[in-house]
């Protein structure tokens, strides 16, 4: 079995309108349901964090595959998740 190179840990309290913190405290923020559903304006919600993480990981996968195929991606390339 391969050794894990990295593990991310985070803890949530209070559900969608609670608080999240990563084990290294880089992420340490209150959460809210989306404003359109009655949440606070300007607050982060779990869906935004999930979409950001997914887009970042998916784009990195594309960068790795492109590199293996000797394909140059534009530095302005973007990946969005919905």
TrEMBL record:
Family matches, as InterPro entries: KH_dom-like_a/b, OHR, OsmC/Ohr_fam, OsmC/Ohrsf
Descriptive protein name: Ohr family peroxiredoxin
PANTHER family, A to Z: ORGANIC HYDROPEROXIDE RESISTANCE PROTEIN-LIKE
Ranges annotated as biased composition (Low complexity): 23-33
Positions of the UniProt region annotated as Disordered: 1-40
UniProt-listed Gene3D superfamilies: 2.20.25.10, 3.30.300.20
UniProt superkingdom: Bacteria
Any single Pfam family the record assigns to this protein: OsmC
Stretch forming the signal peptide: none
Family, as annotated: Belongs to the OsmC/Ohr family.
NCBIfam families (UniProt xref): organ_hyd_perox
A Gene Ontology BP annotation from the UniProt entry: response to oxidative stress
